[in-house]
Design a protein that fits this description.
Elements (H helix, E strand, L loop, with lengths): L23 E4 L5 E5 L5 E3 L2 E2 L3 H14 L5
Antiparallel strand pairs: 1-2, 2-3, 3-4
């Protein structure tokens, strides 16, 4: 058994830490989730599944504006 194997024994492990999350998430400066790109191809804007390109474009524009990249 490796010497460091139980180093984090007292640390509480959250279930999410045990699974690999491959989604790409865009947050505003105030930590609001604006856009989520899922590994299965789904795109969410403000937590709602985007059904058309216009919703995705609007979500991306909002992210860029709130993060100060566009005016």
């Amino acid at each position: 058994m490796a010497e460091n194997e139980h180093e984090d024994e007292d640390r509480e492990i959250i279930d999410d830490e045990m699974t690999e999350d491959t989604d790409i998430v865009f947050f505003s400066n105030d930590a609001e989730e604006i856009l989520r790109l899922c590994d299965n191809g789904d795109i969410f804007v403000h937590g709602r599944l985007a059904e058309n390109d216009k919703g995705v474009v609007e979500g991306l524009r909002e992210f860029l504006k709130k993060s100060g990249h566009i005016g």
